[in-house]
Amino acid sequence: MYRDRREAAERLAERLAHLRGEHPLVLAIPRGGAPMGRVIADALEGDLDVVLVRKVGAPGNPEYAIGAVSEDGSVHLEEQAGQCRQEWLTRAIEEQRRLIDERRRRYTPVRSPIDPAGRVVVVVDDGSATGATMAAALATLRQRAPARLIAALGVAPPDTLARLEVLADEVVCPEAPARFGAVGQFFADFGQVEDDEVVRLLGKAP
């Protein structure tokens, strides 16, 4: 469906063109959402930052989210997490919290996260199968009192989008295939985004 993340971001920016002039805060979910967030923030003349949320992957299938951990420490678990041993789940959550702290120190070492309070906020990710990570990001940000909260994804199944519509004021997703395996199958180029690239993309942020 997409050549790469840039094409997905350009299509999202077209859908979000009505926000130009409102100086939106674009919060990318790293790492895959970061290059898309840069494109969208530039197109909408907004600010770019990251919202740090880490998914808790299923045992034996780390790409399938059974929950997510937010930067504020909150944990959002899917129903499937109940099938996991508590000891394993506790370790997995603590590991994701450690990685979140590590990433914030690396991504924005000389400034604090941009405050979303009173801002039009667009949360960006390349895609989502279960919606767990995006849902955790939206729930965390809602507590920070944004003026408006928008979820923007390159691709997600219809049931995931329906779930996110309850948490966001607007959900934008150009592609919503009913048959959904993994996000990467909808991108011809779905290369890994490294931390150094995220730091570079954030370098233009205030």
Automatic annotation (TrEMBL):
Q: Which Pfam families match?
A: Pribosyltran (PF00156)
Coiled-coil positions: none
Q: Would the keyword Transferase turn up in this protein's UniProt record?
A: yes
The alphabetical list of record keywords is: Glycosyltransferase, Transferase
Give me the segments passing through the membrane: none
**Which source organism does the UniProt entry give?**
Halomonas mongoliensis
> Which InterPro entries does this entry report, sorted A to Z?
PRTase-like, PRTase_dom
Q: Is this entry keyworded Glycosyltransferase?
A: yes
What protein does this entry describe? Phosphoribosyltransferase family protein
According to the UniProt entry, its GO molecular function terms are: glycosyltransferase activity
The residue ranges of the Phosphoribosyltransferase domain are 9-175
